Records
---
Amino acid sequence: MTAAMPDPAPPYDGRHLLADLHGCRGLDDVVLVEAALRAGAGAAGATILEIRLHAFGPGLGVTGVALLAESHISIHSWPEYGYAALDIFLCGRRHDPAAALSAIAERLDAAEVRETMIARGYGLPNP
Amino acid sequence: MTAAMPDPAPPYDGRHLLADLHGCRGLDDVVLVEAALRAGAGAAGATILEIRLHAFGPGLGVTGVALLAESHISIHSWPEYGYAALDIFLCGRRHDPAAALSAIAERLDAAEVRETMIARGYGLPNP
């Protein structure tokens, strides 16, 4: 009998959750958006390296990112449409992008969320 | 005859290019990665608000983002696999995510690029 082969390195298990949030409130409020990103990272069990946000002015959008030890959460908002484009990219199996999305959508009072999950990583088979 | 209706607001035309870069070199080199992000933003015709990068140490990955007036370019690298996960999210029709990807892939000496383009925005029809 042949010796059992050692397990190969586990494939990289990155999950990238793209979410379009509609019917939101407070999308020009950089303090609220930062609180939402912090809540999302916390709900996912992720570690924040830093949060950087840029507010384009009263009534205008916010663009920013929470850089994480496990990748990132980004947001770009259009308050005039109640719309925010959210990305939650988490590497590793321990972290929960869906929990992050729920926490953020709740903070931004989203009426509708459309989401797409994309697998990312070096271990994915050829398409 | 009825009067012509005015054109509705043009649908938001966000393009989010997800790219997985394989066979790259220099992915632990934060200076190289920053130069690649700058080259990408420049090639796209985008305006950089700031670039934030975190290097996890020699031989280890870099995580970071170029925050743009037109959304963002993010990167997460695994130099031990020659792999980088790149996102190029550009709102507006004037900016060219494919040009950004080409510039970045060239700087990182990528041997293989797998890409997926996702439409984002408030103007998209219901799925």
Note: Chain B has a mean pLDDT of 90.
---
Amino acid sequence: MEIIKYPTEKEAKKALKRIALENKKIIPKVQRIIDTVKAEGDKALFSFAEKFDGVLLSSLKVSEEELNGVEKKISPELKSAINTARKNIFKFHSAQKRKEIKLETSDGITCWRKSIPIEKVGLYIPGGSAPLFSTLLMLALPAQIAGCNEIIICTPPQKDGNISNVILYVAKLLGLKNIFKTGGAQAIAAMALGTESIPKVYKIFGPGNQWVTTAKQIVNSIGVAVDMPAGPSEVLVIADSSANPNFVAADLLSQAEHGPDSQAILITTDENLLHSVNEAVTDLRKKLSRNNIIEQSLRQSKLLLVNNLNEAINISNNYAPEHLILSVNNADDVASNIINAGSVFLGNYSPESAGDYASGTNHTLPTNGFAKAYSGLSTNSFTKEITFQKLSAKGLQNIANTVKVMANAENLDAHKLAIEIREKTDG
Amino acid sequence: MEIIKYPTEKEAKKALKRIALENKKIIPKVQRIIDTVKAEGDKALFSFAEKFDGVLLSSLKVSEEELNGVEKKISPELKSAINTARKNIFKFHSAQKRKEIKLETSDGITCWRKSIPIEKVGLYIPGGSAPLFSTLLMLALPAQIAGCNEIIICTPPQKDGNISNVILYVAKLLGLKNIFKTGGAQAIAAMALGTESIPKVYKIFGPGNQWVTTAKQIVNSIGVAVDMPAGPSEVLVIADSSANPNFVAADLLSQAEHGPDSQAILITTDENLLHSVNEAVTDLRKKLSRNNIIEQSLRQSKLLLVNNLNEAINISNNYAPEHLILSVNNADDVASNIINAGSVFLGNYSPESAGDYASGTNHTLPTNGFAKAYSGLSTNSFTKEITFQKLSAKGLQNIANTVKVMANAENLDAHKLAIEIREKTDG
């Protein structure tokens, strides 16, 4: 890992510059997939499954038999773990539900905002070597707590035409029934446009590869909402002499194993710690199975030595990490100065993997500096708010002149007329 | 206005189908403007002002003298109106500030979410015939209440090189100082990318023409957040026999005068009312100055007669109107069944123009059916939320096995290691 000592603000910025996201080349290809799904519906999904997933499907939808048969295939240990995670995620996300805000802004003018579930949502769960059943928990639980009426799940089939058992188990546990065997850009297109089998949804959630994220971007530009823009996963650790180098090394490695483009960064005020962490990374990675991926991602990882915690905080706020671990003595003080981050982990016993799975927080977070303007996923990502207002005749009278004068200054006659005509008719 | 009697659900859907938004032709042109601003900075903005606004500017930034000189140019009547509107908007948007949510999900595991202002935001205020100073109030007040550190305003210069007095007055009143004379796609590009004069922001707000909305869409795809997707303005009125036909007609006309692509719709259970409204529209529009615009927009407006209020509610929820006026006896009951709308106005004395200017609610709302997934603007549009978690050694121990089992099932070794290594070292 590259070591950078006492960088200026500018040097730190340069050192932590992310690899530019570049999807221009695949945009036309993704657009063609979307157009094909639009034109051919289910037929396109069957043929893409053959082409991309190497499987001839007999049905897109997971059958009741498939769902019912899965429970006995999961170990009691994994069931129990999923249950613990579910409880904590449920608890934290239930607390996020918003109360109605209602008040009288002036005499006779009552205004309120009400949170209402988005009726139809689509959840994308990536396939690949490791089935991300934790992501299904993280997306489906808040959708259910929010009260979404229709929850659609798309996930790519395995070569044998099945969906991973543990994903099906989580779906069954949560009572989810609309699970479709389709992945990639075609799955996003299906949920955005609807096909014979797959209902059209209003908002699409979930991570994915470049094809999936590009498809989300394209359907977003035609008005389908999406959870957030995507980029490679990343962690930044701020550590002082109170940190345990082995803990920090393990946290950096947890990030590094996600993918070859992941970024793991340490900023520390303690030069000894920096070297110990570097050694511990080298030492600990020997035991890990994803060493190839780790090898690649550590190439863009950095260890920064700074003069004090304020410098570390500034660099972190400029970088806006997806995950931020504060392995420092006064973690609460440092946390109160964090203004840009996805999720923050305080102290030596709060590793990222706790939040990835089971502490209760969501693991769907803004990457790539998007935390400067975007929030991580919450129950409110599955709702929208509607504003209401009710004026009494007296209430309208109180602002009648205000509205008329303002409408007049904006040359909007009819807006003025809508007030005048009511003034003439006293309620 | 076209009259449709007792439509089936399908017929109603077809009748209310919106004109498809089509901006493909201008995308390359907008992209060129963005590329030019990226390459040339301020120089590009000066040259676009000459080309598009017909003015040779000496400076992009509004000077302190310009701001200071404006107060005496505004009538006391308009000042007082702006002040009333400001108070109500301030009151409603202050109540929207979110409290921190903090709880223990399990013994020793504390999780919380904190709302934090987006540091740098850009507000776009369109120019044109009527200066939309009300939009400046609607965007800047919530930004200030949220606590945004840097508020940048871009608005196109008039032919004389000035900004409208009333826009400057509102800026001065609110203490806003970073106002730049640039409009169109180039203004969006400047705020998204930054130039010598104009700071780069993290989120861009505000309405605009096709060029502006296309530019927002493009910069959004490279990671700059935007308020919401845009489309033509619209109102839907649900009315029964208790409605006053003149009030309803004036409300439809208020919408129709916004622009030639605006849509105004009435759904009523009362055939007499339908005809009276139709006559009142013909009658009242004679008095209005924007008759040309109204002429065009009324062409896509409809009057629907339905069997009962439930049908009206269903059609409205399918349409998801930006503005929804409930001119019915039991407006509260009907309101409780509304699930898709931007802003809802209850009863005979709650015209849209009240909410457009002065009741306190925001007038930046989702159009084009986007209300199915998007909310109108609120104070929270100017904040993002960060998640925090703090586990004690005991807290981690409580979920250690859960995390290890789940990480194992997802083939993420290092995630498991980050727990194991902490278990070995008891805190």
Note: Chain B has three domains: 27-226, 231-375, 392-423.
